[in-house]
Amino acid sequence: MNALTARVLGWLGRVNDAHPWSHNDRHIPWILREAHAIGRRGGTRALDVGCGTGNLVARLAVELPDVVGLEPDAETAALARSRLAATGNAQVVEGSFADRPDGTWDLVTFVAVLHHLPLAETLATARSLLRPGGRLVVVGVSREAPGDALLSVVSMALNPVVGLVRHPRRAQGRPASMTAPTADAAETFDEIADVMRRELPGVRIRRGLFWRYRARWVAPAG
For the chain, give me the number of helices (H) and strands (E)? Predict the structure, then answer.
């Protein structure tokens, strides 16, 4: 790394720290469109796996009458419960995917969570939890591969711009919604896509900016 590159990366880091924004929350409108479609056809139950501080759970509760968030980190789960205390149709369960409530679901979401879990096994389980016509929605994180270099460079350049536009005032610290524990992804996008296509025939998956991909699968109606 030469001196100019180091200075540019240092500047980008300082701007990002001063104007943080959630790469996950930008996908909430897309997920809500899926939830709205489910609600219109009579769906009622949604499960948000790894719900963090409850941003998505709160929004899903506007669309569907029964929403559950799962969060394994005790402190983060407590923040989510506090936030949702007045939301009568949403609850937060402290625990892992294995600790989910019984029953089937019309919507199961994983937002920057799937890479914390065994991929094929988790997808197979999620598939089995969906009611006919139910939807599995994933906003995922993958390990960077050489083919991702262009998207990564564009994301690095745009990240501070988006942060400045969304939050022009300098932040005093990271928002609570961005304090949940994180981990690096083990699989590349291509590896994830191969597993998804095997476990979820007909899944739609595509790369996106800001180190995220999207995937959507609809359970067969029959």
Answer: 7, 7
Q: Determine how many CB atoms are found less than 10 A away from the CB of residue 171.
A: 14
The answer on pLDDT for 178 being more than 60 is no
Whether the CB-CB separation of 180 and 79 falls below 8 Å is answered with no
Sheet (strand 66-71) strand order: 90-94, 66-71, 45-49, 105-111, 130-140, 213-218, 204-207
> Could you give the 3-state DSSP secondary structure of residue 112?
coil
- Choose among 118, 188, 158: nearest CA to 26: 158
**H, E, C per residue of 147-212:** HHHHHHHHHHHHHHHHHHHHCCCCCCCCCHHHCCCCCCCCCEHHHHHHHHHHHCCCCEEEECCCCC
| Cα–Cα distances in angstroms (integers) from residue 117 to residues 28, 38, 69, 101, 172, in the given order | 21, 26, 16, 18, 33
Q: How many CB atoms lie within 10 A of CB 121?
A: 11
CA distance 216 to 194: 14
Other C-beta atoms lying within 10 Å of the C-beta of residue 222: 5
Residues 89 and 67: beta-carbon distance below 8 Å: yes
Token look-up 């369960």 returns 93
Phi, psi (rounded to 5 degrees) for 217: -135, 135
Percent of the chain past pLDDT 90, that is, above it, reads: 60
26-42 pLDDT, tens digit per residue, is 789 999 999 999 999 99
